[in-house]
Amino acid sequence: MRGECVTPQPISKLSMADADRIRTDIGELDRVLGGGMVPGSAVLIGGDPGIGKSTLLLQAMGKFAQAGRRVLYVTGEESMRQIRLRGERLGALSDNLLIYSETSVEKIIEAVEKIKPEAMVIDSVQTVCTMRLESSPGSVSQVREASAELIGCAKRHEIPVFLVGHVTKDGAIAGPKVLEHMVDTVLYFEGERGHVFRILRAVKNRFGSVMEIGVFEMKESGLSEVHNPSEIFLAERPVGASGSAVVSSLEGTRTILVEMQSLVCPTLFGVPRRTVAGVDYNKVVLLAAVLEKKASMALANHDIFIKVAGGIKLDEPAIDLGILASITSNFLDRPIEPSTVIFGEVGLAGEVRAINQVEPRVKEAQKLGFKRCILPKDNLKGLKKTGDIRLEGVSMIKEAIDKFFE
User: Fold this and answer.
1) Which residue, 199, 227, 255, sits at the end of a domain?
2) Does the pLDDT of residue 1 top 50, yes or no?
3) Are residue 311 and residue 286 in the same domain, yes or no?
4) pLDDT at 43
5) Which stretches does DSSP call E strand in 36-193?
6) pTM for the whole thing?
């Protein structure tokens, strides 16, 4: 097992984990991992089929191997020739990247003992099995037992291991939920087939920030890092169109500005529809009810369609005011000034509540050339004004609606 200490030790005497970080040379992946791979750590990465999980790991391990580190890439789904063809396309060829087509846990561990790699990938964990159980690969007992043995092997030899996991129809990692508790880090690779952008999101990380994200663009030569996602997501924003509002979302340590789009039109049916993409459905229903009750907008007989441009998913209270602004703009058919950024939490009484991390949001908006920020009034206290960006605080949604169209 990891470490030789068998007696209790003072926490102040323990070595720092950050000193042992191993970088993959892919900045966005290192960011999500918390600064790089930790020796002996187990990372579970899930995502829809074809989203790019294997591509990302092959690119990362290729760079790692090209830096002189030995890597064992175990594939249970693809042939070694298929991996070679993909590696050639991604520029991941290296004598230090060893491909092993095997599904037996015992044989994989035997290969680790012999090769002594500095990193390992299991693609995928649902295809491997242990001979100690008679159940078929992919079953709950096999996934749990095989993963436990592989994780134990990685910790004994102090090597980071990546486990690729299939997902169910509702997007959760297939197999027992205990698998997420067994590993140190859980990453989800998100994105829509029609969009070129992919989001790598950490939902559990014992060695770094939770809910950190990395942004990639899918190209013919593989996944390319996106260092300034705000600029990319706002590149095709229509100017002077009603229903368009720029919101600020904080994803881990990164501030992202994205466009929120709404379409509000009279319903042709008895029950109005609420269709959303990229935000929580219940949040939209709640905000529509607040607008109807506190701002006297007759939305009960209107369909509401909301989409976050670029295929990204947002889930934090600060986007409430942006959603409300987008709906109001399209309902009144009045465009919001294009140089305006909107963020704030909205309560059921129609109040605009303060949010956290306001300063980095304002700085990101200023960096991209925005001239005005509409934000909660309570957040103005102690906030230093930088540059020529105008900060306008609001405390109620009626006041905010007036500000939207000034």
Assistant:
1) 227
2) no
3) yes
4) 96
5) 42-47, 71-75, 97-101, 119-123, 161-165, 185-190
6) 0.79
Amino acid of residue 21: R
Residue 2 lies inside a defined structural domain of this protein: no
Cα 372 from Cα 369, distance rounded (Å): 9
Query: What Å distances lie between residue 329 and 243, 246, 288, 337, CA to CA?
Result: 5, 12, 13, 11
Distance, in Å, from the CA atom of 225 to the CA atom of 295, rounded to the nearest integer, reads 43
- CATH of residue 131's domain is 3.40.50.300
Quick one: how far is CA 229 from the chain centroid? 12
What is the rounded CA–CA span in Å between residue 365 and residue 342? Answer: 10
Give residue-wise pLDDT tens across range 117-126: 999 999 989 8
Q: How far apart are CA 237 and CA 260, in angstroms?
A: 10
Task: Return the DSSP state at 163.
Answer: E
Cα torsion angle, 313, 319, 320, 326, sign? negative
Query: Measured in whole angstroms, how far is the alpha carbon of residue 306 from the centre of its chain?
Result: 20
Specify whether 245 is located in the same domain as 270.
yes
Per-residue pLDDT reduced to its tens digit, 261-312: 999 999 988 889 999 999 999 999 999 999 999 999 999 999 999 999 887 8
Quote the number of domains for the chain: 2
* Domain identity same for 189 and 330: no
Residue 209 shares a structural domain with residue 269: no
CA distances to 289, 290, 377, 404 from 303, in Å = 13, 16, 31, 22
What pLDDT, on a 0 to 100 scale, did the predictor assign at position 9?
81
- The domain in which residue 165 lies consists of 11-227
Domain annotation covers residue 342: yes
Pair 208, 346 in one domain: no
Structure tokens given for 369: 């050339």
Both 297 and 365 in one domain: the answer is yes
- With residue 346 as reference, give the H or E element that holds it: strand 345-346
Q: What are phi and psi of 351, to 5 degrees?
A: -85, 150
Same domain, 95 and 144: yes
In this predicted model, what pLDDT tens digit does every residue of 82-120 receive, in sequence order? 999 999 999 999 999 999 999 999 999 999 999 999 999
